[in-house]
Amino acid sequence: MLLSLGVIAVILLAGGLALRYWEPLRVVGDSMRPAFITGDIAIVRKGAKVCTGDVALVREPGHGAVLHRVMGVSQNGSVTTRGDANQFDDLGSVDPSHIAGKVTAVVPLGVVIARWREQQTSATLLDQQQIRQ
Length: 133
Fold this sequence. Notes:
Order of helices and strands: HEEEEEEHH
Distance between the termini: 56 Å
Number of strands: 6
Strand order of the largest sheet: 1-2-6-3-4-5
Protein backbone atom coordinates (compact mmCIF):
# COMPACT_ATOMS: atom_id res chain seq x y z
CA MET A 1 0.00 0.00 0.00
CA LEU A 2 2.78 2.41 0.95
CA LEU A 3 4.67 1.52 -2.25
CA SER A 4 1.54 2.23 -4.34
CA LEU A 5 1.14 5.64 -2.72
CA GLY A 6 4.81 6.36 -3.39
CA VAL A 7 4.44 5.44 -7.07
CA ILE A 8 1.33 7.62 -7.39
CA ALA A 9 3.13 10.53 -5.72
CA VAL A 10 6.07 10.22 -8.14
CA ILE A 11 3.73 10.09 -11.15
CA LEU A 12 1.83 13.18 -9.95
CA LEU A 13 5.07 15.05 -9.28
CA ALA A 14 6.45 14.14 -12.72
CA GLY A 15 3.16 15.17 -14.35
CA GLY A 16 3.17 18.48 -12.51
CA LEU A 17 6.74 19.18 -13.58
CA ALA A 18 5.94 18.24 -17.18
CA LEU A 19 2.99 20.65 -17.25
CA ARG A 20 5.32 23.40 -16.09
CA TYR A 21 7.29 23.10 -19.33
CA TRP A 22 4.84 21.57 -21.80
CA GLU A 23 1.19 22.24 -22.56
CA PRO A 24 -1.10 19.78 -24.34
CA LEU A 25 -3.51 21.64 -26.60
CA ARG A 26 -6.44 20.16 -28.54
CA VAL A 27 -6.45 21.27 -32.18
CA VAL A 28 -9.68 22.82 -33.44
CA GLY A 29 -10.18 24.06 -37.00
CA ASP A 30 -8.76 23.43 -40.44
CA SER A 31 -6.19 26.21 -40.88
CA MET A 32 -3.24 23.88 -40.23
CA ARG A 33 -4.32 20.98 -42.44
CA PRO A 34 -2.72 18.64 -43.33
CA ALA A 35 -0.19 18.98 -40.49
CA PHE A 36 -2.93 19.00 -37.82
CA ILE A 37 -6.60 18.13 -37.94
CA THR A 38 -9.36 18.74 -35.44
CA GLY A 39 -8.96 16.41 -32.49
CA ASP A 40 -5.17 16.14 -32.65
CA ILE A 41 -3.27 17.01 -29.48
CA ALA A 42 -0.39 19.44 -30.01
CA ILE A 43 2.33 19.33 -27.36
CA VAL A 44 3.68 22.85 -26.91
CA ARG A 45 7.02 23.66 -25.29
CA LYS A 46 6.17 26.72 -23.20
CA GLY A 47 8.40 29.74 -23.74
CA ALA A 48 10.46 28.11 -26.48
CA LYS A 49 12.02 30.45 -29.02
CA VAL A 50 10.53 30.06 -32.50
CA CYS A 51 12.24 30.07 -35.88
CA THR A 52 10.95 30.13 -39.44
CA GLY A 53 9.17 26.83 -40.13
CA ASP A 54 8.19 26.15 -36.50
CA VAL A 55 4.55 26.02 -35.45
CA ALA A 56 3.98 28.66 -32.79
CA LEU A 57 1.33 28.93 -30.13
CA VAL A 58 0.13 32.53 -30.33
CA ARG A 59 -1.90 34.07 -27.51
CA GLU A 60 -2.85 37.63 -28.33
CA PRO A 61 -5.19 39.66 -26.10
CA GLY A 62 -8.77 39.39 -27.34
CA HIS A 63 -8.10 36.22 -29.34
CA GLY A 64 -8.06 32.56 -28.46
CA ALA A 65 -5.00 30.37 -28.75
CA VAL A 66 -3.80 29.98 -32.34
CA LEU A 67 -1.37 27.41 -33.72
CA HIS A 68 0.17 28.72 -36.95
CA ARG A 69 3.44 28.24 -38.80
CA VAL A 70 6.16 30.88 -38.45
CA MET A 71 6.81 32.37 -41.89
CA GLY A 72 9.47 34.80 -40.72
CA VAL A 73 11.03 36.53 -37.75
CA SER A 74 12.01 40.20 -38.09
CA GLN A 75 15.05 41.96 -36.60
CA ASN A 76 12.94 43.25 -33.69
CA GLY A 77 11.66 39.73 -32.95
CA SER A 78 8.12 40.15 -34.31
CA VAL A 79 6.81 37.06 -36.04
CA THR A 80 4.83 36.58 -39.25
CA THR A 81 2.53 33.54 -39.18
CA ARG A 82 0.22 31.63 -41.51
CA GLY A 83 -1.93 28.54 -41.29
CA ASP A 84 -0.66 25.79 -43.62
CA ALA A 85 -4.05 25.64 -45.34
CA ASN A 86 -4.26 29.42 -45.75
CA GLN A 87 -3.23 31.20 -48.91
CA PHE A 88 -1.89 34.35 -47.24
CA ASP A 89 0.07 35.31 -44.13
CA ASP A 90 -1.95 36.38 -41.08
CA LEU A 91 -2.64 40.12 -40.92
CA GLY A 92 -0.06 41.99 -38.91
CA SER A 93 2.96 40.61 -37.18
CA VAL A 94 2.89 38.98 -33.77
CA ASP A 95 4.69 40.67 -30.89
CA PRO A 96 7.26 38.27 -29.39
CA SER A 97 5.56 38.58 -25.99
CA HIS A 98 2.47 36.91 -27.49
CA ILE A 99 4.35 33.78 -28.58
CA ALA A 100 3.56 31.29 -25.82
CA GLY A 101 5.72 28.48 -27.20
CA LYS A 102 6.23 26.13 -30.10
CA VAL A 103 4.79 22.75 -31.03
CA THR A 104 7.29 19.97 -30.39
CA ALA A 105 5.05 16.93 -30.96
CA VAL A 106 1.59 15.96 -32.14
CA VAL A 107 -0.61 13.10 -30.98
CA PRO A 108 -2.71 12.35 -34.09
CA LEU A 109 -6.02 11.63 -32.37
CA GLY A 110 -7.96 13.58 -35.00
CA VAL A 111 -7.65 10.75 -37.52
CA VAL A 112 -8.83 8.22 -34.95
CA ILE A 113 -11.81 10.39 -33.99
CA ALA A 114 -12.74 11.02 -37.64
CA ARG A 115 -12.63 7.31 -38.49
CA TRP A 116 -14.67 6.46 -35.39
CA ARG A 117 -17.31 9.04 -36.34
CA GLU A 118 -17.51 7.64 -39.88
CA GLN A 119 -18.17 4.15 -38.51
CA GLN A 120 -20.84 5.21 -36.04
CA THR A 121 -24.40 5.08 -37.27
CA SER A 122 -27.25 6.80 -35.60
CA ALA A 123 -30.92 6.59 -36.25
CA THR A 124 -32.79 9.73 -37.11
CA LEU A 125 -35.85 10.71 -35.10
CA LEU A 126 -38.06 9.41 -37.93
CA ASP A 127 -36.24 6.04 -37.90
CA GLN A 128 -36.65 5.84 -34.13
CA GLN A 129 -40.38 6.47 -34.41
CA GLN A 130 -40.75 3.75 -37.07
CA ILE A 131 -38.86 1.27 -34.90
CA ARG A 132 -41.25 1.88 -31.98
CA GLN A 133 -44.35 1.25 -34.10
